[in-house]
Amino acid sequence: xxxxxxxxxxxxxxxxxxxxxxxxxxxxxxxxxxxxxxxxxxxxxxxxxxxxxxxxxxxxxxxxxxxxxxxxxxxxxxxxxxxxxxxxxxxxxxxxxxxxxxxxxxxxxxxxxxxxxxxxxxxxxxxxxxxxxxxxxxxxxxxxxxxxxxx
Amino acid sequence: xxxxxxxxxxxxxxxxxxxxxxxxxxxxxxxxxxxxxxxxxxxxxxxxxxxxxxxxxxxxxxxxxxxxxxxxxxxxxxxxxxxxxxxxxxxxxxxxxxxxxxxxxxxxxxxxxxxxxxxxxxxxxxxxxxxxxxxxxxxxxxxxxxxxxxx
DNA sequence: TTTGAAATATAGCACGTGCTACATTCCCGT
DNA sequence: ACGGGAATGTAGCACGTGCTATATTTCAAA
Lengths: 151, 151
Hints:
2 copies of one chain form a homodimer.
Chain A: H1 18-50, H2 55-62, H3 66-78, E1 82-84, E2 90-92, H4 94-116, H5 121-131, H6 137-148
Antiparallel strand pairs in A: 1-2
Helix pairs in contact in A: 1-2, 1-4, 2-3, 4-5, 4-6
Chain A binds a DNA duplex through α1 and α3.
């Protein structure tokens, strides 16, 4: 039983479980950007509706308290996704607007795909809110192709 | 899903954007259980392969350090999903095993669905790792029906 | 039986993401 | 012009989830 330098499990396990770790690491990375995506999309919506995004409105739509929304906006600001001045509204930067556009397009596509395979509209909307963040470019293009092929 | 009426935010409207908040609140709740699901599924796999799940193996497969895995296991224990004694392996309780079975079944179904709509197998595996946690029972049944209808 | 390397546990740091409580600022109605 | 309620900001707590560094325990080879 030749022992390679792969220190696998209790006994002489073998496997290249590197890929497993990669998948989980990928999922964790996405989890940390999901919040940014939700905020930029929402700020874009509010800006379109009211001309600006107020902290209170952001908080209410997300179902969190204002301090939570405020802290998140500070982080968005640090990341260069929004501009804001104290006691004023929040506005997307170019980078933020670009993210919002991509997120919105992806969201719509995911909902359409779910409905196309028979998911009820309400469940599709609900589930898409979480699913969308994890849909890669490759998968997105596959969704597009599938939807196009259905006339 | 058509929006009801316009939330007059800056004004004193009492708009029903409750549904938005509900979706986000739902997504946040799921996010907090996703880690438990990943761990129980992995512990089930390792138990099957080696007869027990060791902290080191859990950590390596998830791509985290041992202390991180150890802390997580303590939380799983507190939630009644696993049993463990210091310096010994980790074992699923009945509740944990049930969760693992459900998670595994759901994972397979999501991957099959993605592949069925044309997503390359590799991307399907990668994306499913994140997507699966957000797929509701309703959507799951729709996936099943869709796959069955394809012969 | 002893011992040293690997496995496991623990301490402590950083930061995210939620909260409540309280301070400050804005702005509308009087 | 100004007073008060709503909006916004800030402080501080809790806990999750990652890390590094350091103890402790286990187990198998010497």
